[in-house]
């Protein structure tokens, strides 16, 4: 069974979840996160109060309450849901947001039978971060010198993620987990500009920012070619030829470039205007069902944008939207439930219990 599932996972597409951060003129930090997947990951919001005890190993008594999506990431085989139950997105009472973006082929966790010294379980990583960190300095301090591990190698294709954390000060930290000096699961940190999609490794993003993002609102530079004067194409923004597909790198270039142009033109005044801008930015890279697919052992795998999460890191305002009539969005009034201390089951599951608010 394990070999069969692993073969299926190897052909899953690199879906295009993303994170975007906007700092308004009044210094309010807002962030957005999109979820792209082929089947519903659940639209229920769960919360944990400060002081609740997390029973998973290495998740000590919570210091900070947090809220997040209680998501299912898995496959349906013969009508049964098989996968891992884990948090994909968390925000806490101190204004820290933590999101996991799928990073296949790059992420390397420790999957040995013996738990590594100073090990942190991958399946409860976001809970540990959200319950004990107030900012990205805390996140670095928590993860440095640790090894992140999985209890079973068969889970690796589900949990190969990068962690993106955004704090109230507006800093964005990307943490990937690589094999460094023979130690898989070693955290590798990248300071981000605030735009992240799920693939490839963040080192590619840094190179792109250095050589490929010199966009500007107006460019009237004259070029003389064979005696003829020409001007830049793409409405002055040099957008001609920009990738327009649904792959993560193409989505990154559009998110990053349009963010730069929009904010340079007129920075949002406050959190409300930032929410509106983020919705429009994600609308530009929204994947409509039927436009992205790959063939798997169980048939076609049709990815689409399921929802976006918007968070005001100053006020704690949380808004969730899903696609509605094209590229517009509608606000989801997702059920809010109190989560039990057992936040994650590391084993496979057949059905999501109704008590957890699955939709």
Provide an overview of this structure.
Helix 7 (248-265) packs antiparallel against helix 8. With 359 residues, the protein is of the alpha+beta class. The two termini are 27 Å apart. The protein has helices spanning 2-9, 125-132, 136-143, 156-159, 202-212, 234-238, 248-265, 271-284; strands at 18-23, 29-37, 45-48, 66-77, 80-92, 97-102, 119-121, 147-149, 161-166, 172-180, 183-192, 195-197, 223-225, 228-230, 293-296, 299-302, 304-312, 318-324, 328-331, 336-338. A hairpin with a 2-residue loop joins strand 4 (66-77) and strand 5 (80-92). The chain contains eight helices and 20 strands. The model is unreliable at 1-14 and 344-359 (pLDDT under 50). The strands form five sheets. It has an eight-stranded mixed beta sheet with strand order 11-10-9-6-5-4-3-20, sandwiched between helices. Strands 12-1-2-17-18-19 form a six-stranded antiparallel beta sheet, covered by helices on one side.
For this entry, give a set of tags.
single chain, 359 residues, alpha+beta, eight-stranded mixed sheet, six-stranded antiparallel sheet, 8 helices, 20 strands, 21% helix, 34% strand, globular, disordered N terminus, disordered C terminus
Number of strands: 20
**Series of secondary-structure elements, N-terminal to C-terminal:** HEEEEEEEHHEHEEEEHEEHHHEEEEEE
Distance between the termini: 27 Å
Radius of gyration using CA atoms only: 21 Å
Strand order of the largest sheet: 11-10-9-6-5-4-3-20
Enumerate the spans where pLDDT stays under 50 for 5 or more consecutive residues: 1-14, 344-359
Averaging pLDDT over every residue, what do you get? 76
**What percent of residues are in strands?**
25-35%
Question: Helicity level, as a percent range?
Answer: 10-25%
Category by helix and strand content = alpha+beta
Please tell me what the overall shape is: globular
